[in-house]
Amino acid sequence: MGRAKFQEFLPENCHRRYSCVHCRAHLANHDELISKSFQGSQGKAYLFNKVVNVKCGKAEERYLLTGLHAVADIHCNSCKTTLGWKYEHAFEASQKYKEGKFIIELAHMVKENCWDS
Predict the structure, then answer these.
(1) What is the residue-wise DSSP string for the chain?
(2) pLDDT tens for each residue of 3-12
(3) CA 42/CA 105 separation, integer angstroms
(4) Domain 17-112, CATH 1.10.8.60 — does that match?
(5) What residues does each domain of the chain span?
(6) Could you count the other beta carbons within 10 Å of the beta carbon of residue 37?
(7) What are the pLDDT digits (tens) for 49-82?
(8) Can you say whether the dihedral through the CA atoms of 39, 63, 102, 47 is positive or negative?
(9) How far apart are CA 113 and CA 99, in angstroms?
(10) Of 1, 45, 51, 53, which cross-links 38 as Cys (Cβ 3.0–4.6 Å)?
(11) Residue 69's CB: how many other CB atoms inside 10 A?
């Protein structure tokens, strides 16, 4: 029988955060958001510097809108939904800033906690 994965919770003083739309596991603090101008396989996506409660799959080379990259799919630790990917390697110099960063598709996340304040 498998054990449940430990779920990391973002601090209470994290006024704006993103969570998994399917199970509400915390994914990222708004302060880690780099860009809202990305495209995922299912539509709009955000680029984050750091995320929590995800597991990376095996890296593979894919041709994306900005060229060839080595990426690893990321999955929610709690519900196992594929959320997006992690950029492991960029082959073009202009894309190197993405290395080590994470894409989460809007279809798989929800904003939570004090967005109106």
Answers:
(1) -PPPPPPP---TT--SEEEETTT--EEEEGGGEEEEEEEETTEEEEEES---SEEE---EEEEETTEEEEEEEEEETTT--EEEEEEEEESSGGGGGGTT-EEEEGGGEEEES-TT-
(2) 445 566 655 6
(3) 7
(4) no
(5) 17-112
(6) 9
(7) 999 999 999 999 999 989 999 999 999 999 999 9
(8) negative
(9) 29
(10) 45
(11) 21
One-letter identity of residue 84:
G
Provide the CB-side half-sphere exposure for 34 (13 A, CA): 15
Could you give phi then psi for residue 20, rounded to 5 degrees? -65, 125
Measure the CA–CA gap between 113 and 16, rounded to whole angstroms. Answer: 5
Tokens 């304040």 — which residue?
Answer: 117
Neighbouring residues of 20: CB distance < 8 A, sequence distance ≥ 6:
27, 53, 76, 78, 79, 81, 83, 108, 109, 110
**What is d(CA 47, CA 105) in angstroms, rounded to the nearest whole number?**
9
Query: What does residue 5 show for φ and ψ, rounded to 5 degrees?
Result: -75, 145
